[in-house]
TrEMBL record:
Pfam family, one: WW_FCH_linker
Protein name from the UniProt record: Growth arrest-specific protein 7
Record's keyword terms, sorted: Coiled coil
Domain of life: Eukaryota
Classification via Gene3D superfamilies: Arfaptin homology (AH) domain/BAR domain
Coiled coil: 204-231
Domain F-BAR: 59-320
PROSITE patterns: F_BAR
Species for this entry: Ameca splendens
Length: 340
């Protein structure tokens, strides 16, 4: 009797499918139809086929939703997997973080040199002999340069320990090793997927051959071109069924591997997403520390000139004159008219 079976193999989670249509009408003809769009051995739905796909994390622009396909590199010669694009982002982030540390290092050097210059100038003997309240104010002004130098030195030290070092040491050498591990893990699964895909193709061809063979034998029997017996046909049919089962088995293995790859892609890309969020937050935190320290410097820096302002306010030119006159006066008896 005529029987018709339709077996849908759903691959992956998003309705990617291989449709195996086994229609053994009179037990003779098997039709296989593969309805999928494999790209580099990953099966995607054909446009308009399969159920509508929803994003795994709608509205989040999550890594796990946007890196399923491979991309041709700019030269167009080799393919870069979506996962490799994510890995490259991580490596670049690491490099940029290092460059930021380098930049802060240069900033520190300027600050140190500036402090050294101020400190040196504060020791200058210029106008050291100024006297009185003006002399005091002048001495304080020179001293303020030394205090200011201290402020800048402290700033540079804090920049080093609280900004440069954290930026430099965030994620040590293990980070690249970890990325390599992720890379190998996902690449292995892709390789497995490719080999399973090849098996499916091979099994599909084998089944097609078996079916052709069965068809030819059946026709030959019908038009009595051959003395093939029912036995031969049964044998051919058995082999065809076997080839069909084999294909099913290969499909199932492919299915499992793609499913595994899919899951690992989701978990690993979300892991990378988390790492990126952490990196950005870490840098943000330390750049904020930079601005805090810089503000502090201004405030301390202000305080170094406050005593100078104070002394300038306290200056008393009259008193200075008095003091100077007392010390250097040459005689207070005034001359009188000549009298004979
Ligand atoms: C420090 O002084 C030297 C000259 O003595 C000058 O070349 C340099 O630019 C100064 N540096 C800073 C940061 O002011
Ligand atoms: C079938 O035909 C072949 C030659 O075409 C012959 O050798 C063979 O003996 C035949 N077998 C039967 C069962 O008639
Ligand atoms: C504080 O230091 C900055 C340099 O970092 C300098 O330009 C500024 O004039 C200083 N301000 C005072 C009040 O000393
Ligand atoms: C004024 O008197 C002081 C103290 O005796 C002295 O050090 C200074 O050299 C004198 N100034 C002049 C111009 O003689
Ligand atoms: C039709 C079919 O075999 N689907 C399977 C594909 O693979 C996943 C994961 O191994 C299974 O859960 C499905 O049942």
């Amino acid at each position: 009797m005529a029987s018709e079976r339709q077996i849908y193999y759903t691959l992956g989670h998003k309705g990617y499918h291989i449709l195996v249509l086994t229609s053994d009408l009179f037990g003779l003809i098997c039709m296989i139809q593969m309805r999928l769009s494999p790209i580099n051995c990953v099966t995607f739905p054909l446009p308009g086929e399969g159920p509508e796909q929803q994003l795994l994390k709608p509205n989040e622009w999550s890594y796990c939703d946007y890196f399923w396909a491979d991309r041709k590199d700019p030269q167009g010669t080799t393919h870069v997997t979506g996962f490799e694009v994510l890995l490259q982002k991580q490596l670049k982030g690491k490099q940029l973080q290092k460059e930021m540390a380098e930049f802060i290092h240069e900033r520190i050097k300027i600050e140190e040199e500036y402090a050294k210059n101020l400190s040196k100038l504060s020791l200058s003997p210029l106008a050291a002999q100024e006297e009185g309240t003006l002399g005091e104010a002048w001495t304080q002004l020179k001293k303020s340069l030394h205090d200011e130098a201290e402020v800048h030195l402290k700033f540079s030290n804090k920049l080093h320990t609280e900004v440069e070092k954290p930026l430099l040491t965030f994620r040590g050498d293990n980070f690249k090793k970890d990325l390599k591990k992720y890379d190998h893990h996902i690449a292995d699964l892709r390789k497995q997927l490719a080999s399973r895909f090849a098996s499916v193709e091979k099994a599909r061809k084998a089944l097609a051959d078996r079916q052709k063979d069965l068809e030819v034998k059946t026709q030959q029997l019908e038009i009595k071109l051959s003395n093939k017996t029912e036995e031969d046909i049964k044998k051919a049919r058995r082999k065809s069924t076997q080839a069909g089962d084999d294909l099913m088995r290969c499909l199932d293995l492919y299915n499992q591997t793609q499913s595994k790859w899919f899951e690992e892609m989701v978990t690993t890309s979300m892991e990378l997403e988390k790492l990126e969020v952490e990196r950005v937050e870490w840098i943000q935190q330390h750049l904020r520390q930079y601005t805090t320290l810089r503000h502090e410097t201004d405030m301390f820096n202000q305080s170094t000139v406050e005593p100078v302002d104070q002394l300038l306010q306290n200056m008393d030119p009259a008193k200075d004159r008095e003091l100077w006159v007392k010390e250097n006066k040459t005689g207070e008896v005034r001359p009188v008219d000549l009298d004979i």
